[in-house]
Amino acid sequence: MENEKLLEECKKGLGISIEPNEAIDGLILQKLMTVKLFMKGSGVPDEKLDGDLAIGVIVMGVTDLWELKSGEVKFSPAFFTLVTQLAVG
Q: pLDDT below 50 — which residues of the chain?
């Protein structure tokens, strides 16, 4: 799945304008790639990671990482559940 499409979906999920914004887009793309790497490492196959079902899970993970405080990394229980379902299902 194209990162541009995922970036737009993440911006919608965060309530941010989908208009290009170099500074914000860079931050979101960093978090987007981190979430995808986490999902891949958790056993989500590439074909599912690049599929439409993964969009909502990726947006949820990016949203979880968006409001982090220094020294804190925390995904929601719902994110973990959905990643597990994609990995196993």
A: none
3-state SS string for 14-29: HCCCCCCCHHHHHHHH
Q: Quick one: pLDDT at residue 72?
A: 78
Residue 68 CB partners (closer than 8 Å, separation 6+): 74
* Separation CA 87–CA 43 (nearest Å): 5
pLDDT digits (tens, 9 = 90+) for 36-47: 999 999 999 999
Angle, to 10 degrees, between the axis of helix 77-88 and the axis of helix 53-66? 150
Distance CA 66, CA 76 (A): 12
Q: Where are the alpha helices (DSSP H) in 15-74?
A: 22-41, 46-49, 53-66
Residues whose CB falls within 8 Å of the CB of residue 17, separated by 6 or more in sequence, listed in order: 11
